[in-house]
Amino acid sequence: MVDQSRNAQSLARSFKHSSKHLYSSQKWDALEGAAYNLGFEQALKIWRPLLADSGIAVISEMSWFTDDVPEPASTYWQSAYPMMGTEAENIDRANRSGFSVLSKHRLPNQAWWFNYYEPLREQIGQIEITPITQLVIRETEEEMRLFEKFSQFYGYTFYVLQAT
Predict the structure, then answer these.
(1) Which of 27, 32, 56, 157 has the fewest CB atoms within 10 Å distance of its CB?
(2) Is 85:95 a contact under the CB 8 Å cutoff?
(3) 30: phi > 0 → left, psi -120 to 50 → alpha, else beta; which?
(4) In which element (H, E) is residue 53 found?
(5) With b meaning 16 or more CB within 10 Å and e meaning fewer, what string describes 26-62?
(6) pTM of the model
(7) Could you tell me the CA-to-CA distances from 42 to 5, 66, 83, 101, 123 in Å, in that order?
(8) How far, in Å, are 8, 48, 114, 155 from residue 144 at the CA level?
């Protein structure tokens, strides 16, 4: 599996460098984003200077819904996304990064299945199988099996934040 932490650090450095030049004088009233590739706290620290005072950010993040996570799910996600935190940890991260949390909302499991996993399964059946695609398919199928069995323990949470 790819080293998510190293990739996130590299992506964060690139984004931080380019955002200084592209948006240095522009402040946004609102932004929406997914923090997965950067990590939740890193993304918030990068995006906070782009928001006007009291600006609103709606950020989605893969989150644990509980501290008591079954071992198979914990092991998989520790490798796939080691920066994943609980909703409580992400609220603390948001506060440390210059935001107050107005609300949080979990993406329903059905939305994940109908809008992501089912279309993905269809696509898997249509691609050319190579050693690389076979590895990706195996990892994706493992992720789907785990989500089917343990989705009550984790998923995507939308955090509605206000810059402080």
Answers:
(1) 32
(2) no
(3) beta
(4) strand 51-64
(5) eeeeebeeebbebbbbbbbbbbbebbeeebbbebbbb
(6) 0.80
(7) 11, 22, 10, 16, 32
(8) 23, 33, 12, 12
Alpha-carbon distance of 102 to 104, in angstroms, equals: 7
Helices (H), 55-112: 71-80, 87-96, 109-112
Closest among 163, 62, 138 to 106, alpha carbons compared = 62
3-state SS class at 23: coil
Cα–Cα distances in Å, from 155 out to 50, 64, 71, 122?
27, 7, 16, 22
The pLDDT-based confidence of 2 (bands split at 50, 70, 90) is very low
The percentage of the chain sitting over the pLDDT mark of 90, rounded to a whole number, equals 74
Token reading at 97:
């990064």
| pLDDT beyond 50 at 78 | yes
Distance from C-alpha of 136 to C-alpha of 16, rounded to nearest angstrom? 30
What does the pLDDT look like over 121-164, one tens digit per residue?
Answer: 999 989 888 999 999 999 999 999 999 999 999 999 999 999 99
